Every structure is written in structure tokens, then in C-alpha cells.
Amino acid sequence: MNVSLASQTSSIDPYGALAALAQSMLALRSAGDLSTACGIAGSCAMTATGASDWRLLRVDPRSGSLRCMDPAGVETPYLAEPEGPVEWTLQQEMAAFDDGFSSAASGASVRREIELWTDEPGAIATLPLLSNGTVCGVMLVAFPAPHAFPAAERLMLQTLADGLAMALERSDLRRHLDDARRDNSRLERRVAEGDETASNLMSVVAHEIRSPLTAIKAYAEALLESLRNAQAPRERFLSIINVECDRLSRLVTDILDLSRLESGQRPLRLTRVELEALMRETLEGLQPVLHARRIRTSIQVEPKLLIEVDVDLLRRLLINLLGNAAKYSPIGGEVRVVGHVRGDECWVSVEDQGPGIPAEDLPHVFDRFYRSRQQGDETEGNGLGLAIARGIVELHGGRIQVEVPGKGGSRFVFGLPLRQLATARARRIASTIVTRSDLPELFDQTVEMVAASMDAEIVSLMLIDPEAGDLAITASRGLEGQHLEGRRTTMRSGVAGSVAAWGRPLLVNNIETDRRFRRLNHPQYSTKSLLCVPLRVEGEVVGVLNVNNKRSGDPFDDDDLAVASALVERVGSAIERASQHPDSPRLVAEAIQAVRSITRIKRESLLGGRSVIHLARALARELQMPDAEVDLIGYVASIHDLGMGSVRDHVAHGEGLDERDRTEVERHPEVSVEIMRPLEYQNAVRDIVLAHHEHWDGTGYPRSLSGAAIPAGARVLAVVDAWESMTRGRPFRAPVPREAAIEELRRSAGSQFDPQVVAAFVNVLSQETGTT
User: Looking at residue 53, what DSSP letter applies?
Assistant: First the structure.
């Protein structure tokens, strides 16, 4: 990008410019609506400089994509021109002033983001909007003809850009503050409810346990006494003890079941089942209760109504609702069950003729241990049945509610999906993804990158099938000849389906003993440990990436999970940016090239290995960094030396480095940033990569930063990098003993390294080895 240094004067009125700037700043500071404030600022800029138009581009903090904001505040995706002023400004974080004189004289074609304008500008100023060291947007000011940018005008535009950046930052902070207030309010309510629930739980559990324990104790003593009395009814005593033990067992089982359901960590074992047959089978098991109270039952279910459910859980749900209805119905009453299809859901109602539920109790009937005051404590039960019912319904992605029919009694109504499918929005997004012809190569390369990064033999990427709504393998490594066309997973089922539904990455240490899955390991997997990571696009899970068979035979760990999650997150952001510009293959091609670079250099062992990642994360934790920063530093540790690929041949000679080689080595942080740019949109990552060879005393490279100006993550990585270099050696240097490496780190603390980081690192080493 050619940045003009023209010194031509302009007809700008300094007093008018100052007045326009003051008016702009007042608008940006006081206007409540962001688009209105920015519109006023843009109009002032045009008035002061004689510009013909202006545009504001915002950087999406989630995906890193650009969005053009119109005067009404509506944002539309925008793709910067290759090697154009916006791309240059984003990369360099500097303003670009194209005065147009040189191009007008030579007739050369110049990129000026022509898609933003009705008429192509003759000159353009492109200014970064910097907030806390991060580019949050770009302001462009266009002129109809070549235009000089004297120093005063440049200063005015840059000041205006700073004001716009503060306005964007303030808008984001307001939104985050509102979100934080809502979250804090919810958290306070949950804490209060949790304290109350915990207190109530202990009270209710103590009460529920005390009754059977009292009976067991009393009859056990009577039984002991009966040993001296041959006429005592020992059989009845033992029978009562047995019943009370069963009651205790049911209570413990219910509490455990409810805990698993409420945690959402219970995969579904799905089967297509005919609803009416399952209902009648359930009622058959309840006949002793129904017969004892002479309860009649009526079942009206659409014939051949098939539903995809976890049969054991649905049976438990029906038992809870039908048993509850029978328990509260009057002797000789009727329980009525109705089931029908409504759209893509099956709705079932269970209605009784009992006393009903008071209106004030209706909002609480599904709470744990809650029992309606009108029903009192005379009816047997522990108050967990309806809470478990709600957990089962919600685990299936359904809804449950209670109604009071006009004729009395209670009616419990629940709706379940007929099939466990991905959400409609996720299927729409997946549809736009699978129709692109350039994305399959990115998927293939992503699988290769993760396999190389995790040192795994088997990796597969599953995407949502827009038509079927389930997950199907799209790309894989290590599954050749496995008939992958038939390998599909239903949402909420198994590991992949559960992660797709939960939206959280998952580490399984042993698939056979993990209480959530407990299944025999498939013969194709040589290890029982695995990773599964969700792939998000536009905030929706559109697929998962599975990782199996670590070559070392060791189980995967939290370090592996964090790095895999970070890599997949970057690919998801690249897919999102590409999806917003379906007619531009450039974004995908650049992402593929970046992924290939990571794969190649990982396989050549020039990127951070497992020990680097582990030590960097452990050191960040020792420094009490937030979990998000720990994960970020672990990810950066895995990719920070991408640029070393360009100097690997020189280093491999083992004969030392000449001046030219040293120059290339010192450029590798900047090269790394350029390689990863198509995948990486977070400035924090870029800053750590660029600064991990800076020295505490300011003698490092590439920007000679010093002290606290060096990002904390870079200071962590500098120490870990030095440790790895010393203890593992390099082609041109033999490794040194552990004690000597520690002494060297201590000696360089305060000059090359942050003293606090060195001290923390020594603590980490002592904790992991038990020595200092």
C-alpha cells in the first residue's frame, strides 16, 4: 500500500475544522444512539475537509469479519479489496492517505474499495479505529478528485477516528455492562436460590432419611429382642426393614438421577418407539397401584405414532406422571392420557381427577422437593418425581407444563421432538456451508492440521446434514475403507451428538469407564481416550471434530483439549467470514494456506510441542491468570513459531547462523503473524506472537519493547521458549543440564526475562518434579 507523504497545502479552514471536530466530539460523547453519533461525525468530517462521502467499517469481535454500518445503523458484511487500503490499514494499524495525484498523473489503477462508493473516489483517507491497542473498525473518507492531506487535516481526521473508536468502545462497553448486569442479576438469584435450595435440600433429605432410618432402627432393635422370644413376628420385622431400605435406595437413586439430568451431561440412547405401545407397557407395570385404588385409565394416542427417544428415560417420565396421577386421584377415579402430533413434536397430556393444585403452587411444582401445600405430607413421595420429569423432557429438547382443567384435577402436558434434529438455524447455516465447492478442501486440511497438532492417528470432522438434521462425516484421516457414508450420529446421542447438543468441548479419558457413556471401545481405536470439539459458525454448532488414537498411547489431557478447541474455533471463524462472501473464494484459499502451513511445520517439529504447551499453561496458572488467558497462551504456544519454517534449512545445518540467517530468524515473529492472519483475528494472539522475543530490558526484537509494555503472554512464552531451547537443544547447540538451565533463567531475570515470571516458572518446575 502506497502511503502518500505529499505536503501540498489545502484550502482547509483551520477554524472551521476545529469547530467541526468539536461538534463531532460532542456528538460522539453525548448522542445515545451510535449510528446517529457516527453520522454526525461523518458529516462534520465531510464539511471540514470537502470530502464527498465517508464510510464506517466495524470489526466483528467474534469472527473478525468486516461489517459496513449505514446511517441507520444496519450492518452488512464487507470484504476488503486484496492489497487495498482497508487490508493495509488493518495489517499495519496505521492510517493510509492516498492523495490521488501520482495515480492521476500516471494513469495507474489504484485500489480504493470501489464497492463502498457510488462513484469511484479520486482520493481516499483510511484510518484505523484503535481501542485498547486493538483495531475495532476502519473509517474511510472519500474525495471526488485528487486531494492533498496537509498535516493539520491528517491530525483532524486521526483525532476524529480516535473519537469514533471511543464511541464504538463505549457502545460495546454499554452492551457488555448490560449483559454483565443481567448475568450478575441471574447469578445473584441463582446464588440466593442455591443457598435456599441447599438449606431446603439438607432439611428435606434429613427428614426423608430420618423416617426410614427410625423405622429400621426400631425394628432392628425389636428383631434383636425377638431372638430371645420365639413368639415374636420376626418375618414382619424383616419385611418392614426391607421396605424402608428400598425407600432409602429410591431416594438416593432419585437424587443421583436428578443431579445427572440437571447437569445436562447425560447422553441419550435413542430408539424409534411406538408411543402407544410404550404407554400400555408402562401402565401394565403400574397395575398394582391402579388396581388397589380402582383407578380407570383411558389412552387416546394417534395410531402408529413413532417417536425417537431414550426409551428408559421416557418410561421413567411416564411412570412419574402416571403414578403421580394415580396417587392423587380419588378412589374409583380416572386417569386420562392423550397423545398427538403437532408439527414436528409429539404432545402428551396426563390428566387426573384429584384435588388439583392451588394457583400459587403452580410455578413451583417442578422444583426439587416441592410438594403442594394442599396435598400435604399424607401422600407418600419425596418431591423429586416432577423435577426428574422436567429434567427428562428438557434433556430431549422438549417442554413440560402443568394446567388446571376447568372441571378440576391436574393436567401435565409435555412436548418432545419426534426426532432429535439440529436446530432450524443450524441447518440453514449448514446448508450454506455444504453448497460451497471450495470448503471441502478446507475441511480436509483442517483434519490434517488437528491430526498433526494432536499427534493423533484418527481425526474426523462431522457436519450437520441440512436435510436429515443429523451429523455425517465430511472429512477424516485414519478411517479409510470404513464405509463412512453410513457413519451418522443423531443429535444428543453418543459422544458426537452430545457435544453437538451441549455445545461444549469434551475430553473422555476412558470411554469404557466414563459414567456418561460406558461403552465398549471400538476395535478401530487403539486407545480409549478421545476428544470431541464443537465447530461453531455464526454462534451455532454446525459440526464436531473427533480426535482418537494418540500415537504415544497416552490419554489426551486438558492441554490437548484447549489447543484443539482453539484451532477449531479459528477454522469456524474463517468459515463464517467466507460464508458472508459466497462469491469470493479468496478467504477460503487463504485459510487453506494457513492451515497447510501449521500442518507442515507441526510435522517438522518446528512448532511448540506438548511440553511447551503444557509448561506455558502451567506457568500462566501459577501466575493466577484467568482461565481464558491460560487457554489463549496454550494455543499461542502451539503456533507461535510458524515463521521458523522459512529458516528451517539454515538452522538445520548445525554450523551456526550467519548475519543473513540471524536477520531471517529475527523476522520470524512477523512472518508468523502474516501466515496465521487468515485464521487469526484476535490482536491479543498477534501481540503475543510478535513480542515473545522481546527482552525485559528493551534489547529484544522486533519492536524493542520493555518491561510491562511486553504482553504478559509473551513474557510467559519467552521463559518457556528459553527453557525448551536450553534443555532440549538445537541443531547448532547441545542441550544443557536442568540445573544449569534454571541458573541461566535466574541470571537473566531482570534483563531478558520478567523476574516475576522466572520465579513462578521455577515454582512450576519444582511442583512437577518435586525438586528445586
Answer: E
